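Supplementary notes (optional reading)

For those who missed the lab, this is the record we used. Protein: Class I SAM-dependent methyltransferase. Length: 204 residues.
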Amino acid sequence: MDPRRKDYLATEAIYSGNSLRIGDEFVMHDWERPLIRRMVEDLKLTPDDRLLEIGFGMGISASILQEFRPASHTIVEPHPQVLLQAERWKSARVNVQLHPGYWQQLDTGTQRYSAIFFDPYADDMEAVDDENLRFLQFAAQSLLADDGRLALFCIRPLLPLEYQRVMFEHYRRVEISSVKVAPRDTANPTADLDGHMISVVLHK
Ligand SMILES: C[S@@+](CC[C@H](N)C(=O)[O-])C[C@H]1O[C@@H](n2cnc3c(N)ncnc32)[C@H](O)[C@@H]1O
């Protein structure tokens, strides 16, 4: 989400057992779990990793990422109600830092991460693509250590050409694997592809 969209933070976050909506929009749904798990597995975390996660949502990825016990796990999240959930989730964990705000507001300094899990939210496809492409470039230039890896949540079930251009300009390797999902309640991004989405991991 673009930080200039002031309405986002004031819109109510509604957690049900299997989804998170912000206002009327589904921001996360439990059907995405197999894709999230595969993305985390493809990131191949080790206990030496300094991990940055963008977007807490329902904490599904955060919990799976924690199974790999990274040395540190920093989570960037702007929405105040989502942050409250993240605070509760964090309470029993020692290696997690919450960073309130948007990734676009990160003060990069000299801090570098060895692994990034990127799964924010925007409410139209043009904004999603714009944000993804900006982040891919920003992460390569200002966040990732050399040899670092980045898992990108890709709502598009095939990788658009523009993504490939940015990826191959800034990363040395792009790993894509196919994941079967069963969307329900939300729009179905896999309608033409028989339930397949892609897990994308980039290597700097
Ligand atoms: C799709 S959800 C994340 C789902 C999460 N990976 C999970 O497994 O539950 C997106 C989250 O990103 C947050 N978000 C939206 N725009 C953001 C931004 N620019 N920077 C950081 N977080 C953002 C939203 O508030 C929301 O909590």
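If you only remember one thing from this example: Residues 1, 27-28, 36, 54-61, 76-79, 82, 102-104, 119-121 surround S-adenosylmethionine (CB under 6 Å).
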